[in-house]
Amino acid sequence: MKKTTNKQLAKALYEVTKDMKGADLKIVLADFVTILAREHKLKKADYIIAEYIKYAKAGEGIQEIEITSARELDEKTLNHIKKAFGNNTEATVKIDESLLGGVRVKTEDRILDASLKTQLLKLRNSLS
User: Fold this and answer.
1) How many Cα atoms are found within 13 Å in the side-chain-facing hemisphere of 54?
2) I want to staple 77 with a disulfide (CB 3.0 to 4.6 A). Which of 73, 81, 94, 127 is the partner?
3) Which residues are CB-contacts of 15 (< 8 A; sequence separation ≥ 6)?
4) Does residue 104 belong to any structural domain of this protein?
5) Is there a domain that residue 1 lies in?
6) Same domain flag for 71 and 112
7) Phi, psi at 102, each rounded to 5°
8) How many domains does the chain have?
9) 3 state SS of 93
């Protein structure tokens, strides 16, 4: 028997609960916890919840990006980067001093690397 993935469980939960409220939602969530227990996935609940949130945001047209820079970016720069990816963009910002300068932006399926560290590595490789 094929096992159900965390992503499949999250998607199923979202599809079933997206328009529910109140007592009906409580019943469905209780049933979902029972399913998780039966499939020995209670320890994976945090991962399932993370996948649920990601799927729900995608369903609402919200794109998540991760911006990594060598130092803290000002609000204007952050907004400019987010706008380049669309109006419904949520950004997580990380600091990585090893980048030296520039930024690296990671989406669900792409990495756009405009860091000084990468540019210097490319230059070194082209000179070799």
Assistant:
1) 16
2) 73
3) none
4) yes
5) no
6) yes
7) 75, -170
8) 2
9) strand
Q: Is 87 left (phi over 0), alpha (psi -120 to 50) or beta?
A: alpha
CA angle at 53 for the pair 50 and 59, rounded to the nearest 5°: 140
Residue 104, strand partner residues: 68, 113
Type of residue numbered 19: D
Handedness of CA 39, 41, 45, 46 (dihedral sign): negative
Rounded-to-integer distance, Cα 53 and Cα 21, Å: 17
The verdict on 95 and 122 lying in the same domain is yes
What the block records as the tokens of 12 is 């199923």
Which structural domain range is residue 102 located in?
Answer: 63-127
C-alpha 99/C-alpha 103 separation (Å) is 8
Give domain status of residue 105, yes or no: yes
- Amino acid identity at 65: I
Residue 15 and residue 37 share a domain? yes
**C-beta separation of 63 from 107 below 8 A:** yes
Same domain, residue pair 67 and 123: yes
**What pLDDT, in 10s, does the model give residues 40-82?**
999 999 999 999 998 999 888 899 999 999 999 999 999 999 9
Q: What is the pTM of this model?
A: 0.69
The pLDDT assigned to 1 comes to 57
Which tokens in the block code for residue 53? 């949130």
The answer on 108 and 55 residing in a single domain is no
